[in-house]
Amino acid sequence: MTAKEIRQAFLSFFESKQHHVVPSAPIVVKNDPTLMFTNAGMNQFKDLFLGEAAVKYSRVADTQRCLRVSGKHNDLEEVGIDTYHHTMFEMLGNWSFGDYFKKEAIAWSWELLTEVYKIPKEKLYVTYFEGDEKEGLEKDQEAYDLWKQYVDESHILPGNKKDNFWEMGDTGPCGPCSEIHVDCRTDEEKALVDGASLVNADHPQVIEIWNNVFMQFNRLKDGSLQSLPAKHVDTGMGFERLVRVLQDKTSNYDTDVFQPLIQFISDKAGIKYGADEKTDIAMRVMADHIRAISFVIADGQLPSNNKAGYVIRRILRRAVRYAYTFLNFKEPFLNQLVPLLADQFKGVFDELISQQDFVQKVVLEEEVSFLRTLSTGIQRFEKYQAANHVVEGAFAFELSDTFGFPIDLTELMAREKGWSVDLLGYEQALKKQKDDSRAATAIDTGDWIVVNAEDQSEFVGYDDLEIETEILKYRKVKAKGKEQYQIVLRQTPFYAESGGQVGDTGRLEDHSRQFWVDITDTKKENGLTVHFTDILPDNLEGKFWAVVDEDKRILTEDNHSATHLLHAALKQVLGKHVNQKGSLVNADYLRFDFSHFAKVTDEELAQIEVIVNQKIRQNIKLKEQRNVPYQDAIESGVTALFGEKYGDFVRVITFDDHFSKELCGGTHVKATGQIGSFKIVSESAVAAGVRRIEAITADKAEQFFLDQRRELGHLKALLNGSKDLSASVQALLDENAKLKKEIEKSTLERVNNLKHEIVHHVRGINGINLIAKHIDLQSAEAVKNLAFSLKDMIDNLFLIFTTEIDGKPGITVMLSDHLVKKGLNASNIVRELGKEIQGGGGGQPFYATAGGKNPAGLKAVLEKAENFIPHH
Hints:
872 residues; alpha+beta; nucleotide-binding; protein biosynthesis; ATP-binding; Alanine--tRNA ligase
């Protein structure tokens, strides 16, 4: 079976078991503060396990793009080295939300593996949770008894808490799990060692392919477990491992998932795959990493220097380093893999093929930038002086952190020089950075404390800015030493930060309206609207008034609706290739990032502004459609954003059916006239192929125009009320240029006169011609010209000038080439003399200058001049 057939067989099998097949969520996580990337198939269903969202389908199946390169699940350094670790991988999963449980999950997993995929039963081993005395958990007898119906008891193995009790994190849903392992060794190897002894022992050919998790408990902050109100099934099967087993390969990289990429790299490098372990690892790293890089960019996360962007930049640079060091790719190459990958996932994850050009351009730009950095790092290493032939750990870490050098590359370059690397020092520096980073981002989150019976929280803020409500639950959070509270309301008018729009602020008033707490922010966490406060109300029971800051909300809506008009105008002026790549919308301004490969010209910006302002003046009424079936919305020509997770039903925001029609959960003006006016204040580059426009609307735009008018009035007054400002300014510039020329001519004459005058003041000391003089010239360039003129006229010249230009003291030192060859250095001399004027400077061995703060020290400079002349 091909990889595509294997994937489809899984989805079709569970469809036949009444599972609803759902699309993969984006790999970049938007509304979960505990995660940057989707690292498990269950992430998109977290709110269902937590009981914080209604269950639409009680049975679900999917294939989910996952990424594990940071935090607890960090496999990055293993990737490419072994046969089965990956950065991006697909997780095939089937799920039950309060429907079936262990009996069906175990039966169906066995049926699929042995009857559909036809894996020989004797190759399979299964595990069950053996219990844990400390936790007060008994062995999972139910799972053991169920497996006995299908599997020989010698192939049913107990597993400890580490291997067979799955937890989402330090807190949250958890439960016992049952893994399925497959023994891919040869018959000869099996005869020597029993496969049961190699399960969960990191043997490269005895591997776990499927894990059935039985969600029964919720882990609380104090470590205790409470039973969940409903029991769930959460399974995950590693697609790449499954393909390897079914295609009878010893490595995931030998399957048709990776081989097309590897063979392409091999051909272009002119190096056969399988010829050498080092080059094989490099090819595997590249084939693996390009998958993670491409899908993360396609899902809207660009490489950058922080958070998720930094993680993806690290992965990209790791791939480039391997290509550079082991495959001799000195020019950008990684980007050439993107079209091949896009074609491979056509019909599975079409996000990539629809953005192929954009993704390839971003990867190319990153490669160009990093190869430049890598070259600088190599030059830095070449200049490094290793004490006792040992590269300091701190320097090795600097190469890694600043220039992207992996420690193995530093070791390789050190060995070529006969040096070693202080690995202990390197590890200490690395650990310190990780500890500092962890401490800076540590958040201590308490358990939810229920105030009223848990219902689903409902957002009503599209229609109301003030409502009567109740507190459902709250918890305490501590970050960076500051304590706050998070509150969940039964109904809330507060919009939670999402889709670029900031969260609402406002007040939570008690029913008497005499006392209140300020709501400082509103965010989403796994679909739940969470309100931030610095203190709690005295009495949490009873009714409250939730009141949104109306002024801030209205101004934010102005900017949000303006981004929709801007998006449509950009497509109209620049072309249909324009797609939103990020946005920020608050009460003060809007920021809009979009795909475009050239600077937007002033003429294009003016045209865009005109279109948006025309739409504002037309006062187009908002057409808002809620709960539209997703497919119907897409077929109607709506603009959907890459990297967003849309549900089965969506909200459509339209301003003129033929102009702007987008999927959006944000809040908007009732008619475009409310925006008032729109003004672009900047256009810039953000990353390869991504431009950014910042703009203002409403009262901020009005203030901008008033400020401009005031500035213009001031300018007119300065120009004596001139009616033609451009002509007046041009006349001033022309006059200024003319005066500059006259000053230059006058200065030149002054330099000429001084030159002939100074020649008569040369003092001969030990065969050296000394000039030490204060010069009255008001231009540093004139002083330099004078010094160079004298150098051409006088042999063995030792010249020191002092100056005072605009009240600032200066020193100039000029030496003849003959004196420089004798060991004198103008740069060293000027640095020493600079101390007299409380300053410093430098330059070249024959010419150097210094500036300072103390003009009174200039006299001492001239007095010390003679001290620098050798007396022999």
